[in-house]
Amino acid sequence: MRLLILLHHRFELWTVPAWFVEKLRREFPQLEVVRRDNYDTVAADIRDAEIVFTLSLKPEQFKAARNLKWIHCPAAAVHQFSFPELTNSDVILTNGRDVHGPVVAEHVMALIFAMAKNFHLAGRYQQKHVWGQEQIWYSHPHPRQIAGATLGLVGVGSIGRAVAKHASALGMRVIAVREHPEKGSVEGVTQVLPTSQLDSLLAQSDYVVLAAPVTGDTTHLIDADRLAKMRPDSCLINVGRGQLVDEAALAHALLDKKIGGAALDVFEKEPLPAECPLWDIENLLITPHTAGLEEKLWERQYALFSENLRRYLAHQLLLAVVNKQKGY
Fold first, then answer.
1. pLDDT one-digit tens code per residue, 32-44
2. Is 226 a catalytic residue?
3. Could you tell me the pTM of the whole model?
4. Of these residues, 270, 282, 299, 307, which one is catalytic?
5. What gap in Å lies between CA 283 and CA 71, rounded to an integer?
6. Which end is more exposed in the chain, N or C (fewer Cβ atoms within 10 Å of the end residue's Cβ)?
């Protein structure tokens, strides 16, 4: 049985470390573990692979995989696998949502604190050697306490659920929208609304957190009309994917002070081009897609993937299975 690890990325942290591969070979000697860090020989390597560990796969590569039964994506986002050949097949798709969820949720809370206390402005004044106490106080919005504030969650997957726990523990009122509110309550969330009531959530929230997957329904979910529904002192936080937000509309809303601020970890084009006007918007805090970074990332990845390998070999149900029709 062949396991193909096919992963290449310009950022070293997203590349599978050597120990990960060697440990798989030791613990699963019945597998032929093949590692590739480039795509030069994909057609030959994937032909007999039963399991593929990769961030993305092209339709022609999928067609070449004659024995493929299971794809594992170490990222949380899986929209890159949404092509008909895979979506309509019997191939199982799993992802790393439970690896990234708790870590990204901590990043969300850090962004909420940073925006509430205007740390993004303090950083700018520090670079200018300016004691900006009065400027920070008179900024829009003023520094504020997050206890008692309302947090609106768009997406209650592994990230959203962890955010809800943290935020509610700090005294925030958490509301959320989800596609199927009839599924019941979510820990830490006081009210779950259907997605049709997103505008109501936006109007109520001091902080709006986007942690939804990219689908046809969520692309540019936050556009000019939706931004107009937000409160003038509210803050938008996006840790989902850049495609969730119309960045041009957001830039206008921020510059015109129609909302209080925004914090973005993800962008439609990454790396964000140096000439992009978003860099210079004062009430926008940018983190360069670092929400999921942490030193034990690959240990966590190994724990999930190796457990799923054991389940797969024992013909048991896998963890973190993606509904391919829904895209998450």
1. 999 998 888 898 9
2. no
3. 0.95
4. 270
5. 41
6. N
